[in-house]
Amino acid sequence: MKGKAGSMLHEKQKQEGHIWGSMRRTAFILGSGLLLLVAFWNSVTWHLQRFWGASGYFWQAQWERLLSTFEGKEWILYIIGATQVPSLLFWSFNGLLLVVDTTGKPNFISRYRIQVGKNEPVDPVKLRQSIRTVLFNQHFITCPVLVFLYPILRLWGDPCRRELPTFHWFLLELAFFTLTEEVMFYYSHRLLHHPTFYKKIHKKHHEWTAPIGVISLYAHPIEHVASNMLPAMVGPIIMGSHLSSITVWHSLALITTTISHCGYHLPFLPSPEFHDYHHLKFNQCYGVLGVLDHLHGTDTVFKQTKAYERHILLLGFTPLSESIPDPPKKTE
């Protein structure tokens, strides 16, 4: 009996030793990883700051020249920076994608299509209708709303002030903008899926169950303001941001949402699998980053799919639909 008790005690001590050993190894790995991350981050920011500082005089001089050109008419400069520059980048990127969407060429890009067999090629009538809506939203909704917000931005800090933001301040702003957008977009988007609003407002955007890049702004005017514009503008308003920060942020936001809707999981670009799945299934994956979807459990079905396994940054040239294919469909 004593031998058995001793054996059990020895086994328990052995298990505890394994647990503590595992915990120490985990702490060591996490601690080492954290130190490496901090060192890497400091190195990256140091090099970027040196570049920022070295080119800072150049950009400051260009900015002051612009201010002199638009002296007394800074609101025009604000409209150009907040709307026209991001729109130019939006249409440049989407122009390239539309070539593939309408012609299927070059063929190697078509290999990265997420929903195989959809939009091959895209319906021209549906596309023309969508482009008209996008142009309407950009010129008759976005521009007037941003003109309206200009005096509000000036209350917190003139967006066209003379001094450009520092590199670290811009990084802080970017982090705040991203978090603000995640929170506001998730809840406004989820609200639009309520039956009261879905049929009259949000259903328009979901006409595309297999999205393409340009339809990222294809939405009812109310949705465009509440779910597209406000999540992107509240951050700059709170931070009293400089026009340069607003221009970069709006450009990044438009390029990112284009990638999320483009329908292709392209190498070295952020994965669009998350939002593509939302268009396919409607009731999953409401956010941008996926943080609030995880907290609210609105990505549980998505996590059980092959699309979730493919929701990674593609660092090679083999399409993930080939390396992680969907399971074969069951035959009746």
TrEMBL record:
List residues of the Fatty acid hydroxylase domain. Answer: 175-298
Q: Which residues cross the membrane?
A: 27-48, 75-100, 134-156, 168-187
Q: Name one Pfam family in it.
A: FA_hydroxylase
Q: Name the Gene Ontology molecular function terms of this record.
A: iron ion binding; oxidoreductase activity
Among the record's GO biological process terms, what is one? Answer: lipid biosynthetic process
This protein's record includes keyword Transmembrane? yes
> Where mainly located?
membrane
InterPro entries referenced in this protein's UniProt entry, alphabetically: Fatty_acid_hydroxylase (IPR006694), Sterol_Desaturase_Related (IPR050307)
Subcellular location(s): the record lists: Membrane
Please provide the record's keywords in A-Z order: Membrane, Transmembrane, Transmembrane helix
Name a GO CC annotation attached to this entry: membrane
Its recorded name reads Fatty acid hydroxylase domain containing 2
Q: List the source organism.
A: Equus asinus
